[in-house]
UniProtKB/TrEMBL annotation:
Stretches that traverse the bilayer: none
Protein's name according to its UniProt entry: Jacalin-type lectin domain-containing protein
Pfam family, one: Jacalin
Lineage: Eukaryota, Metazoa, Chordata, Craniata, Vertebrata
UniProt cross-references to InterPro entries, sorted A to Z: Jacalin-like_lectin_dom (IPR001229), Jacalin-like_lectin_dom_sf (IPR036404), PolyBind_ProtTraffic (IPR052321)
Organism: Anolis carolinensis
Length: 176
């Protein structure tokens, strides 16, 4: 006997199309910018803590050494090496990163974060191949980072999506 899966019957019987079962948000990815070395890292799980509210960057005279990001009120694990000077930025309530430019070679050499409140934060050395990362979908923001790291940040990628609305204390921009 031929059986039609329950989901198909449900959709067919109630005139629900497949597109209506997809999430109501848009996401995109930019990267990996940099070299192939190092160990892979991902902050995908961290985005559940809320929007990006602060970024710590360790830099030396040539490279981006390390990265740590605060999602909501919680800091991610530190990624990268132990050398370099630490610099950090704190975003205003409701502020989001909407573009990242930079430079890379075998390692990431420069990161420039641009926010939706027209603030620009520059880290690192102005050498290497240039990249420009921005979301594909209008109104989406930087949600989390991925890449590869060793004693430096070897490569970096940027994941864009809607500003989180289903995270405790994040129902509206500015609740952090």
């Amino acid at each position: 006997m031929f059986r039609i899966p329950f989901l198909i019957l449900l959709c067919w019987g109630s005139a629900i199309n497949a597109a209506s079962l997809l999430p109501l948000w848009d996401s995109s990815y930019s990267g990996d910018y940099g070299g192939n070395g190092g160990k892979r890292f991902s902050h995908a799980a961290n985005q559940q803590d809320g929007p990006i509210t602060a970024i710590r960057i360790h830099i030396d005279s040539n490279y981006i050494v390390g990265l740590q990001v605060r999602y909501g009120r919680h800091w991610s694990e530190y990624i990268g090496g132990s050398s370099g000077e630490r610099e950090e930025i704190f975003l205003h309530k409701g502020e989001s990163v909407i573009q990242v430019t930079g430079r890379y070679g075998s390692y990431v050499q420069r990161l420039v974060f641009i926010t939706d409140q027209n603030r620009t934060f520059i880290f690192g050395n102005d050498a290497g191949t240039t990249f420009n990362a921005a979301p594909i979908f209008k109104g989406t923001v930087l949600r989390y980072f991925t890449g590869r790291a060793s004693s430096y940040i070897n490569s970096i990628g940027f994941h864009w999506g809607d500003y989180p609305k289903n995270v405790p204390n994040c129902a509206e921009r500015g609740n952090l």
